[in-house]
Amino acid sequence: MNELPSSMSASTASITAGQSADDTRPSVDAVIAIFNELPEHVLRTAQPCIAQSFPIAHIRIVDDGSVTPFQLPAGSDSRIEILRLSDNGGVSRARNAAIANSDADFVLCLNAEVDLPSDWLEKMIRFLVDHPNVGAACGRILPNGNSIYSQWRMRYQEQPYERSSGSHAIDFATGHAVVFRRKALAEVGGYDEKLAFTEDHDICRKLKAIGLSTWVVDGCVSQSLQHDEPMQLAKKQLRHSGWMNRRGTFTDVRAIRRLPATLTTMRDLLIGLGRDLLKGRWQLLWADLVVAGCALRIVWLVPTK
Asked: Which one, of 2, 200, 19, 224, lies nearest residue 126 by Cα?
């Protein structure tokens, strides 16, 4: 595990919120890509951005072709902007569109169902200023409640670093809340818009290729607003295995593809049941069965186009 220095550098101390020499403080823009998200969840993500102790210059909400276009309430903070895309092209294209409009030193990319504590960004920027060879940094996320489905998601659909401690290097950061060096994103060409499922892994791989690592930062903990339901988890499982896209339709329109999707789901179920039996995670066995059942229901009932 990579070790951190025990003391802050002079550059770190200079970014503390409230300092008088604001012109020496790095600038940050936030990007929130949305597609058919609940408006209240979008606003609950945007409002903590406004309240950060380390100020965000621009908060760009990218509406990626939602069926009902997202509208800002009257009297919203002037830092919030909406970029509206005519059709749904995926999270990579949405983020790239907002990043192309930024000239900030750092870019915070957020999912639409994440709530940040007020000191989250200050801690993150302090870490990044103190570690110039880190190109992307994220924190850990808490589930919304402690249901068996939330426990199942955190163990099997989130990354292992969510259950680790301390600050350390990781292979890639999931897109809940990640801060990037904007110039580094430009250098690697931004997100690959052809990728539908592995954009987070790919962007961190490209940063690594130019000598910049990805870290999880201790003490930066956000709160998920997502209510974990079996059908939602099943859709995510099918996306991870490549059978569905974010619109909720199949990636391959041929109905014959339902059979291999079924076999993949059954394989994942057997692996999950065996894993939880061996580890004594009895409470998760029910979630294994229910999520797999929902996935099979989707495979055979959701239209292929």
From this structure: 19
pLDDT digits (tens, 9 = 90+) for 201-237: 999 999 999 999 999 999 999 998 888 899 989 988 8
Closest listed residue to residue 274, CA positions, set 292, 288, 290, 260: 288
- Rg over alpha carbons for the chain, rounded to the nearest Å, is 20
Structure tokens at 15: 């970014």
Give the pTM. 0.83
Neighbours of 282 (CB within 10 A): 9
